UniProtKB/TrEMBL annotation:
It comes from Dyadobacter luticola. This is Ferrous iron transport protein A. Keywords: Iron. The keyword Iron applies. The keyword Lyase does not apply. GO terms for molecular function: transition metal ion binding.
Length: 75
């Protein structure tokens, strides 16, 4: 069974960050405020599906490429 990640959310769906599957990418995501325990919501998807826009903790929007979003594992 594959992990549930931000890249698999549908528009309007929410999830809570559990962990990261890539150590190198996790530092970048942590610096952007994607912290374990933080709620994220998928707000928008570009016409060809990449990038996506997520709302982090109800505070701000963040655009991510799908390969970055696939690193963020959800509870």
């Amino acid at each position: 069974m594959s992990a549930h990640t931000v890249s698999k959310l549908r528009k309007g769906e929410k999830g809570v960050i559990k962990s990261f599957s890539d150590q190198a990418m996790s530092l970048k995501l942590l610096e952007m405020g994607c912290l374990p325990g933080c709620e994220v919501r998928l707000d928008a998807i570009a016409p060809f599906g990449d990038p996506i826009c997520i709302n982090v903790g109800g505070c701000y929007s963040l655009s991510l490429r799908l390969n970055e979003a696939s690193v963020i594992e959800l509870e």
